[in-house]
Amino acid sequence: MNFYIMTLFPEMIEQGAKNSILGRAIDNGIISLEAVNIRDYTEDKHRKVDDYPYGGGAGMLMQAQPVYDCWRAVEEKIKEKRGSKAGAKTRVIYLTPQGKTFHQEMAGELAKEEDIIFLCGHYEGIDERALEEIVTDYVSIGDYVLTGGELPALVMIDAVARLAPGVLHNEDSAGEETFYNDLLEYPQYSRPEQWHGKKVPEVLLSGNHKKIREWRLEQSEIKTQRWRPDLYEKYALRKKLMEKLVKKNKALYADMSESLGRGRGELIYGGEDGAVVWDKKADVYMLSSFDKASAEKIVDQIPERIKDGQFILHEEWLLPPMERRFPVKEKMMCQRAVYNRDVSLPRSGEIEILQLDISWLPVISAHYHLGSEGYVEERLLSGAIFGAFIEGKLAGFIGEHIEGSLGMLEVFEEYRRKGIAAELESYMINLHLSRGHLPYGDVIVGNEASMKLQRKLGLKVSKEIYCWAIVPSDAAL
Ligand code: 6GU
Question: What is the model's pTM?
Answer without folding.
Answer: 0.74
